[in-house]
Structure prediction request, 232 residues.
Amino acid sequence: MTLPAIAPDAKPSVHAAVLLFARELLEDQPWPSTVAGILAVTGAGRSQAYAMLPRLRETAVALAAPAGRPSPEPPEAATVAVLRAVRDFLMEHPGAVAGRGVRRSYSDELRRFVVGLTAPGAVAQSLTVEQLADAAGVSAGTLKDWLRMPLTPNLEEEPTAEPAFESPHPNLATILALWPSWEGTFHDFCRMLREDHRLTAGDTFVGNVLQAAGLRTRKPRGRDEAPWSRET
Prediction:
């Protein structure tokens, strides 16, 4: 005789275990053959018993799941904490992320910051590498490379020279105000000026402004010429 499935997705071993457990509950009492007999033996109410039945079926299916530890869901609080921490860092460190897609690059400051989130007591200590990578917005492979790299201290750089002058011209004032806090490359800085601030100046002009203000020095090209471009 083949018994009907207690839970269609459960294994036969689970069906057998349910019946063996029922036998333990009945002990030496006769096996009830009707619903009324089951309720009488157990002393349960009909509505409560039928409300419990689907929960028992779900549990039976879960018991039949393959062996192994499923990947835990990322703790919501830790994930939100990482999202906020990375957001605040990027707001205070413009240029820490440059490029798009697979060509995206990251500053050393950002690398140290994200790795630091995994330290004992930090917000990401309970997250897996994949969970942290997803929350921080980097690929899992990139994060694994960062974790393998030695976490060198952030040595203080030589203080940047103060601007030699301030300009009332809006475009020049924008360049002089944004460069000191920029952490990306020079070319990314110029692209950011054009895309985010609608400046039409080219890279050469921006470099001339920063050099004349004492904020950036070009590598010598073998000629000694004025830093200003034509008609500046």
Observations:
- The chain has a mean pLDDT of 76.
- Residues 96 and 107 are 5 Å apart (CA to CA).
